[in-house]
Design a protein that fits this description.
homodimer; alpha+beta; Pnp Oxidase, Chain A; eight-stranded antiparallel β-sheet; 3 helices; 8 strands; Pyridox_Oxase-rel (chains A, B); Pyridoxamine 5'-phosphate oxidase family protein (chains A, B); Split_barrel_FMN-bd (chains A, B)
Chain lengths: 147, 147
């Protein structure tokens, strides 16, 4: 068994910044949902796109969200996960949308549906844990983004 | 952009069966949470272990849960995700616990806390999507389990 170790805020932020894909959890009248998304971190918020008619577009706005990124190496039994929690809000301001696009616009791979809605999660809680020691957190990333 | 294609029930079940790690989403009084877990599929339910005092142990019992597994290759822009939704319940029956242990007992890597609680998710909804075509779903798994 490996010890789980809390990550520092700096480590959480670095891992969050360097990822490209994660999952959003949201509550709906018929229970929680998880939706995998592409994302980007713009300033101090997580941005992802969805369709206004999706579960995420319907119940993810103006309500609490939890967003997770992780990387686990099951053979070596080590890995990490970072969770950001906060309110989801629709970005409507034209200047803010332009700023998001200029920094990095999340481009979902999936073409189906119009993902015209930009959701922003300004986290109020950022926590993370690693399992196993003696390895490089960043090097374990499948894809690294240089911001 | 890639097309997102719904997976069949058979494909979802095969991918779910062959995974070892996923994430559970649950609703709590202060919003949704996501918790990464090791899991196993025993009969027609997902089993994972947690501590009775954790967020998952506290709010994950007798309430709706969403469980997700995925595998994405960000460079090649293809991947899949499977989501199972249903009620979480604590397994207390001694015979059922013995059956779970004999089939495959989920062994969390992390040692911290006593993960004495077995939670069972008998899904009522199993859905999945793939992005990109011309590749083998199973071969993309980091770790494959032969049940």
């Amino acid at each position: 068994m490996q010890e789980a170790i809390d990550l520092t805020q700096d480590e959480c932020r670095r891992l969050l910044d360097s990822g490209v894909g994660g999952r959003v959890a949201l509550s709906s009248p018929n229970g929680p949902h998880i939706v995998p998304v592409n994302y980007s971190v713009v300033d101090d918020a997580i941005i992802f796109r969805t369709s206004p008619y999706s579960v995420l577009g319907t119940y993810g706005r103006d309500s609490m969200l939890a967003f997770e990124v992780d990387q686990f190496d099951h053979e070596r039994q080590h890995g990490w996960s970072v969770v950001a929690r906060g309110r989801g809000e629709v970005v409507v301001d034209v200047d803010q949308l332009a700023h998001i696009r200029s920094t990095w616009e999340p481009r979902p791979w999936a073409a189906s549906g119009a993902r015209g809605l930009h959701l922003r999660l300004r986290w109020t809680e950022l926590t993370g844990r690693r399992i196993g020691v003696g390895w490089d957190l960043q090097a374990s990333l499948a894809v690294r983004r240089t911001v």
